[in-house]
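Dissemination and training. As part of the outreach component of the grant, students in the summer workshop were shown how a complex can be specified as a set of sequence lines and then modelled as a single object. The example used during the hands-on session is reproduced here so that future cohorts can follow it. Participants entered these lines:
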Amino acid sequence: MRRIRLHDTMSGGLVELRPREDGKVGIYACGPTVYSRVHIGNARPFVVFSLLARFLEHEGYEATLVVNLTDVNDKIYDAARAQGRPSAELAAEMGRLYVSDTDALGLGRPDREPLASEAMGEIVAYIATLIERGHAYASGGDVFFEVRSDPRYGALSHRRIEEMDQGEGIEGSERKRDPLDFALWKAHKEGEDTSWDPREYLPAQSCPPEWAAGRPGWHIECSAMAEERLGVGFEIHGGGSDLVFPHHENEASQTRAARGHELAQIWMHNGMIRAGSEKMAKSVGNIAPLHEVVEKWGAHAVLMYLVGGHYRQPLAFSDSELEDADRRVARIREAMRRLRAGEASPPEMAHSRDAFFDALAEDFNTPKALASLFEWVREANRRPDAVGDADLRDMLDVLGLGSLTPTALADPERLYREAWALAEERQQARAARDYARADALRDQIRAEHGVDVRDVANGFELIPLEER
RNA sequence: GGCGACGUGGCGGAGUGGCUACGCAGCGGCCUGCAAAGCCGUCUACACCGGUUCGAUUCCGGUCGUCGCCUCCA
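and obtained this result:
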């Protein structure tokens, strides 16, 4: 079990992972708001934290990954209204598509995927506790969190209270005691087709009369769902860097106020994916939908692309980046052709494998780890005799690339019967030193069957062009 | 304006006070009838200006530039 250090936004430095309970790590990552299909940028935290959990498991920890879905939200109301359909129906559909879109990455599912709409009891109870403890107040149907009641507010995003302003528009500001305060609960408004009554979840006497039926604010959903699944003070809270303020700041503050304890030990934030020089975002409109990217390039290339940069840094997105990632995958698959499957790797090559995992242990440095993986591949290619693939498989599994198979088909003679016949004809031409004909046949095979002919020691092999 | 991050070779992208990142692309070589794959080599990389140091891309200060957050946003 390696010593694992991760960057913590709160403290601004690397922090050693020290689980509350030996060997058990809880990870909560903020998932999408399901009002439209997710894009490649949304996939980044999903992939980063899924792979982090895999790495921790590899190191002998028992990791529990929780990724929520926000299915009650202004955005969803707006989108549903624009489409003239019930908001719950839109959220359910987009939730299903999110699951199938991320399923296509081949990483499996997080251990828990709670929905805000199904956590209403916990959310209401959480808000009630905040009111009881004097950190929140009901006003005109809404409930607000009193930011100045938390002296540590701003600790996560490193901002001073004087420099902030809580938004959600100016709407509701006349009901706030302080412009800094943010909504824990929003009373039902005209045009919203769902609402929950806090009295259904609380004893009547503990519910202030001014607290009306409505729906929860975004921040409280995550505090409640994270705590319910992982307990207070769990190990790792993750999400995109754009959530640091106000979302995570507010989550952290709510939990301090309600429980007198920090929500999480380590706050990890992934960088944004950029299209051109700008952040990729639905609001900017420069989106590459995840399902389209996966369909075009395949899950392996997409994963390779995402682990090609350090999770904290911004990452450039373009077709040529995916092309590049696809070529890297091809290099690995090519190397696999001459590895001995299921056999141990030479001890002399273990330093590359160890360096790979050491790099992951130091703030999950996937690009540095990849460098070691490719060193291993080069060494394997360089060796005169084929080596066992155990080390490589070990590394690829953690990157979610365990399903990679060697280049070329299992049964090309049957699958490419006509190409195979032409290739045999080409072999005869070569034997007769009729190279002009041999080359013509190779061109024909490529053009008509999308397969390349590769000459090897005692014969030929057929390689589908897209696998090269 | 405030807070934070960053400026690395054709591209992407790590990292380090003095020693090859890695990958993709290009070029040269080996291998091949020719290719493909692979291997070897190559492409004078660290925004600019000062400072500290025997020595800085790597530390400190400044300048210019870029990006993120400050409003829903992974």
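The radius of gyration of chain A is 27 Å. Students were then asked to discuss how this feature might be tested experimentally.
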